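User: Sequence for biotin carboxylase below. Tokens please.
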Amino acid sequence: MIQSVLVANRGEIARRIFATCRRSGIGTVAVFSDADALSPHVTEADAAVRLPGNSPADTYLRGDLVIEAALLAGADAIHPGYGFLSENAEFARAVHDAGLTWIGPPAPAIEMMGSKVESKKLMAAAGVPVLAELDPDAVTEADLPVLVKASAGGGGRGMRVVRELADLPEQLEGARREAQSAFGDPTVFCERYLETGRHIEVQVMADRHGTVWAVGERECSIQRRHQKVVEEAPSPLVEAVPGMRERLFEAARLAAKAIDYEGAGTVEFLATGRADTDGGDFFFLEMNTRLQVEHPVTECTTGLDLVDLQLEVASGLALDADSPAVSGHSIEVRLYAEDPAQNWQPQSGPVHRLALPGTAVEFDVLRTPGIRLDSGVVDGSTVGVHYDPMLAKVISFAPTRTQAATRLATALGRTQIHGLRTNRDLLVNVLRHPAFLAGDTDTAFFDTHGLDVLAQPLASVETERLSALAAALADAAHNRDVATVDSTLPSGWRNLASAPQSKTFTGTGGDVEIRYLLTRYGLKAEGFDDVSLVSATARHVALDAAGLRRSFEVSRYGDDVFVDSALGPVSLHAAPRFTDPSAVVAEGSLLAPMPGSVIRVGAAVGDAVTAGQPIVWLEAMKMEHTIKAPASGVLTELSVTVGTQVDVGTVLAVVEAAHAEGES
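Assistant: Structure tokens for biotin carboxylase:
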């Protein structure tokens, strides 16, 4: 039996695997890049080995260094997690050659499914329905729209939708660059793009004795940029179409048996979503020969610990003849550090606090209704620019789908997330949307219902103003607490009536100016005639608004202020009393939205540019980001070249806007 496992990964999935190992009495070994030296997965392992460098190519993708680390630490097995080397057949062989146990499928199975091009041919021969592959060089107008996909990877990397034939060459070039960066293989292909498909996948588990389980299906149709956002089990579509589950399971078992599969894997299908006389049609997309990001929803609905099963199968143990029954409903959402107001740019920086309300189970199977948290960060963690910006997966389990959605939406809405902008509002609004609750979901969900509409802040403008008032009162209480003279007097106290206290914050709706007086008769706040103060400390403020008492928890980190209440979370920034002239940026400046590396420059100083024209391409968090001209004019300054490393807010270029005739 396995005694010690090295996890060749980082963050959330490393912590998830370690949790099962600890419950099973198995030792744990972590590897870490320089950027991850203080990561929670490092401190939680029994031992950790440094991989010098920061980029994945220098660290987590170096199979030779990972194997050396396992031998150094005395581990007898390697678990690859997902991403990085998890679907690398050469790495799997090298692990075996080093005398270590590989917790994954056989290398030939990984190889056969490693190329999406070749795997489709293999599946078609095995009788699994497939969507025809298109040669990128032979795509015609009649084939449009098409989806460009990376042959060697997933997770949305290297994927582009092309609707105009003239755009195909540029999109192919960008997809190849992204695929090379993420997977070390620039091979891409095309297939017909189904605008309103349903993404259905089947979890399989197989042992070396010939038993293949189709454990259950998941639906992952709600996606943005071809990345899954919401995942659930079981699938609402499959539940509604008679006979579809049996056909899906049979196709998944055929796929696994065709390659003599062992261990955990996921067979992904694209369904048309039609419930005709033959049931919903579906086509094979790919097989992920590893543990899937969304595996917790299958665990919660089956009671299985899939990581524990992986360990048992890798040790040679046999599965039972039949897989366990599915009960209840589970929904998972992926909480990303990204700013909806800045075109969903990934965010980097400190995570001051990430706390769910009540008691959430961490990295364990939910056997009763509740909330589970699988996170790669803890309070005080820093999100860097080298890796995916996913902060956590939040999972609910309940007897029914509606209960699971309601429970998860409420928990997310009351979660304290301090430090970075996230997609939390989008997730809650999706979970509460009537179409989602009705099971009417497909890959065009955001196009149909409006991404901008769904991303609206949970807190209303009025809630933001009330929260800003609470923040100002908490700030005054804090000032009294730290005052060295007359700390018992109210902030701004005067012997005679004076001007109101003033505090300005910047919120999602712009600047909010709070002006108030604390008198012997109570609070007098401009614009808040029906609001009275109940109590105020540096952390907690209670206000009575039109007869309703509301409690606000206020947290400050420098000039950043976070106010949490039942009305909705509010993020504020305290405006400085005086403007620093050196912080003023010239009009027309293109600023780096995040730290990253310049990989391409699209214009030179003196060039005439048009509004929206790409000027600089940045690579950060495993994705390409295009920085465009804010207006038509002339590029008067270009401060970066290819290879330049930039910080957030760096001025990349300056465009002097063109003026109308006669305008100065």
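Residues 461-482 form the longest helix (22 residues).
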